[in-house]
Write the structure tokens for this entry.
Amino acid sequence: MKRTTLYPEHVRLGAKIVEFAGWEMPIQYTSVVAECKSVRERAGMFDVSHMGRLTFRGDRVLEFLEWITANDVSKLTNGGSQYSLLCYENGTCVDDIIVYRINENLFRMVVNAANHDKDLEWIKSHNTYGVAIEDETMQTAMIAVQGPKACEITQSLSKDNVLAIERFHSSECNVAGANSFIARTGYTGEDGFELVVPSQESVKVWQALLEKNVVPCGLAARDVLRVEAGLPLYGHELSDQISPIEAGLGWVVSKTKKFIGSDAIERMRKEGTRRKLVGILMDGRMVPREGYPVFCNGKEIGKMSSGVYSPTLERGIGFAFVSSEYAEEGLRCEVLIRDKGFPATVVSKRFLKKK
């Protein structure tokens, strides 16, 4: 079992530790509700060092990334980043990722922890472009600082102008005395930064944020926040059995370039898919957990892929894959919870709409 360099900090702060993707990670520190509220109302931070961090260098790096990723990497300028996908030939998903352009010959990529080894093997198997690929996961740590006050607090720890970094852009800055790769991205629906720092500097940065009263948050709160924001999780809303079109991620997929899986995805665009991902909003506080069946007029129309209690909405919410003919916002339905149907509504996947 692997541990991040911040593991001793999690233990010191009394976090409940669980196994996740081969790592010992904090699931929560105090309560999930309190941690979620800290992110929505002020600022919280997450140790996301378990996620894979890769760099790509070479004269043909852009050409290579255009071929292996679904989004249009060519649209990025220096310092820009984008959400994207790695796809199999049949159009299903290897992983969802973030790509960062540093310059024309240097890019970074963050991949999911559970897919790290698989992704790296798959990426290398397609590298006929002479691109140098480096895995920096164990040499670095990654801290996500999220919330309405996150940027302001991070700025207070830096002499560089981190507030000048635009959304989905990145820069090299010094934060709390550590040279950091800082990206204005996140997984909560809030503004904030993800800081990649040398492993040996991670505790110093973490403690500096603690001193600014940034609340440490665990993986449970992160899951609630990403569902509220309408964001997918690999293994739930994406997998090697699920296509971007089924998952409602067609906006991530280029319509103009050829890439691995593009022919299959184009067919799905034209022909449609038998199921679609929708948001499910419960009438009350019952939680529609993964795998629970969804019914409409007594007929089973799909199953939940994720479900949480939303402290922000004070309702049970989640995502479900339903038969395409039922993927209509406003449709009344029921979720079967412990052999009893509870009323709900099909809604937009973006439960929390931020400016």
